Protein 1
Amino acid sequence: MPKAKAVAPSNIAIVKYWGKRDDRLNLPATSSISITLSKLKTEVSVSFDEKIQKDEVLVEGRPATENAYKRVVAFLDVIRSKTNLPLFARVESFSNFPVSSGLASSASTFAALTLAATKAACASFTLQELARIARLGSGSAPRSLLGGAVEAVAGVLDDGSDFEVRQILPQERVFFAVVVVVVDAKEKSVSSRDGMNLCKRTSPYYERWLEYNQGLVSTAKSALLNGDMQTVGEIAEASCFAMHACCLSANPPLLYFAEPTVSVIQEVFDMRKEGIQVYVTIDAGPHPVLILPFDFVPKAVERISNLKGVVRVIVERAGEGAKIL
Ligand code: 2P0
């Protein structure tokens, strides 16, 4: 019974991925840049088993929801076709952060699943082949294969064969902290996938958003390489707020922020006016993420922890990429 286990970290995008140029291949419309985190992780074990008649998927020890199950089975079908393995699999995933809290888990899950499933199938792929496989599960997953600051290069070819992941900085050279602020809010009601589709179909700003976001990539890379905190922070906010502006301009409008999200944004702006160099980014959910020099972490954490609706503050830094256990 071929079996393997892998672990992958979550990542937070500084230049966001929000939009696909090909739905079937799950190809991103723009490149994106993220920081691989050190603490928030998902462990996935995969065993292909000739004795089972269908795939079995457990998340945190319980059967996956119908949507999650279908997504994992579709991904396993890719692995089976690429490795010529005609067996069903038992997949188990555990995250060390509350999946139900709305913190992104698809990146860490599909990065770990890619490594575990290909290993269990006894197949060996290059990093870029693994990145293209992981992308089929979740567009943000390839970035979690590498540590530090990572670019997912969208590429231009129709078949996606020039999609790549590249490390911009190894984890020890990432010069800022990442603070995940968990706020009191209901689970997100519109998935990233559906949200991206809605924006593409209905937002008058969608094309402009893509053009603007792609334009941020090279400046962000230079700023990361030059240790330029201000530019990294400003670009993170620019990409985040342009993405959310695109969401708000969709029909029906897509609002991912909750009340405490707005309080945290306001507090970040206030802190900056007082000389505390802190920036904020928010994914397709209510939880803000701060980006700031290590020296400012204690002060910023104290200020943010006191806000109404903030339930947990996780101080993070850049970490290593996914690996087989
Ligand atoms: C990002 N997000 O760059 C952006 C910012 C959410 C907001 O990547 O459809 O769950 O599975 O490819 O990977 C979330 O997108 O979407 C995401 P699919 P995924 O991190």
Note: The mean pLDDT is 96.
Protein 2
Amino acid sequence: MIVIPASREMQALALEHMRSGRRIGLVPTMGFLHEGHISLVRIAKEHSDLVVLTSFVNPTQFGPQEDFSRYPRDNERDDALCRQAGVDIVFRPSPHDIYGRDHSVYVDETSLSSGLCGRFRPGHFRGVVTIVAKLFNITMPHAAVFGRKDAQQARVIEQMARDLNFPVKIVVAPIVRESDGLAMSSRNAYLSPSERIRAAGIYASLLLVERLYADGVTETAVLVERLRSEIVSRAQPDEIQYVEAVDYGTLKPVDTVKDATLIAVAVKIGQTRLIDNILLLAGT
Ligand code: PAF
């Protein structure tokens, strides 16, 4: 495994691999890896001949009041995990390498990114789409893998790849959970022991809604109301940002569960913002 710190070097190597017919599988991350990221590596291997994992805490996707400077970092541990998982290249550029002093071009998605997290994190998806577009150009992947925990992010990136004609297959991977159901996230490291226990209540509440749907409740107003009250009692969040039922394709609210309906939540437990979701499929 090699670690590459410069985009010029990374791009030259990616070009070389592409010209020799080797398909690159890309796993974009912000580092501080956990089992969820490693599952993305495993999936990337199924779609490629070599895996590039990018590790870059992207400043442009953080708002001024957000956790950019305290975002957890542990490069040594990350490299050991990558080696163990069979990653071929870790691309870990500096902010200066990615955003030179006079950087002035951004990529914006104007529909899917407006609701859900977009309402609470202005500019976030512009930062995400910009960095992912740059990473695609630097690493030239055949396939790129994103986790469904960030379902809106995955949909926005699918749209970006389609609308900007990136020749990349976007693979959306299942959510990986802790043994008590909490969706894995680097930000879980912020939770105190008591907050961590409350945080498990988010998935327990989502499971209850899944059961309600299995029992025949399809009206989303009923499902969302029940989810909200379960989250209040089980997770005791300090803030509920949203609890919504949206179509997984358009990310627009729906009245009844049809096709694929995403039930998505964002809450704060203490100072930590957590998101999670389940996908309800009509006819199942
Ligand atoms: O999901 C993440 O870790 C980030 O948003 C991503 C896709 C690596 C872009 O910085």
Note: The mean pLDDT is 97.
